[in-house]
Amino acid sequence: MVYTERNTWSTLIATAVIIPGYIIVVLQQAAGGPLTSVDWFPIMLWAIGISIAATIILSILWGIFAGLRDPKGATATDIRDRDIDRMGARVEHAFLVIAGLGVIALCAVGADVFWIANAMFLGFAISSFVGSIARIIAYRRGLV
User: Fold this and answer.
1) 97 is in which domain, residue-wise?
2) Whole-model pTM?
3) From CA 9, how far away is CA 69, in angstroms rounded?
4) What stretches of 31-78 show up as alpha helix (H) in DSSP?
5) Residues 35/84, Cβ–Cβ less than 8 Å
6) How far is CA 112 from CA 46, 94, 97, 99, in A?
7) What is d(CA 4, CA 108) in angstroms, rounded to the nearest whole number?
8) Rounded Cα gap, residues 93 and 96, in angstroms
9) Are 131 and 87 in contact (CB under 8 A)?
10) What's the sign of the alpha-carbon dihedral 137, 77, 55, 38?
């Protein structure tokens, strides 16, 4: 497994764990009440920070173990990796556009800040998740 594919897996794993965790914590804080009464901002900041830290730590640890097995190939990349990354970025951007349009629609109808912020936050998370999946599929099946 090449360097960029390991980083993609690290992002996918961190996102798959942190986002459900964020949703669970917000729902617990609401305790059956309205979600808009939850103090969501610190929870969101923690989720973002933990997600970034988890991705970095997982990537470093995975890189160390890969380096022990194959020191020369642990950080090798080629043009295929760059092409896969570009394709994954296009997929991510498409989902970010959809999230942005959702945020604009929520603003237009005067939705609470909670819904606007969480729509954008989940839009970023989903775009990262789907982009990572697209990259992994491209690594496994190739670009067509």
Assistant:
1) 3-141
2) 0.87
3) 18
4) 40-69
5) no
6) 21, 25, 21, 16
7) 40
8) 5
9) no
10) negative
Whether 30 and 51 have beta carbons less than 8 Å apart is answered as no
Q: From first to last of its 144 residues, what are the pLDDT tens digits of the chain?
A: 788 899 999 999 999 999 999 999 999 999 989 999 999 999 999 999 999 999 999 999 998 988 888 877 777 788 999 999 999 999 999 999 999 999 999 999 999 999 999 999 999 999 999 999 999 999 999 887
Domain count, the chain: 1
103 φ, ψ to 5°?
Answer: -65, -45
Q: Which structure tokens are listed for 87?
A: 């394709």
Contact 95/123 with Cβ under 8 angstroms? yes
Distance (Å, whole) CA 67 – CA 15: 24
User: Crossing angle, helix 3-30 and helix 40-69, to 10 degrees?
Assistant: 150
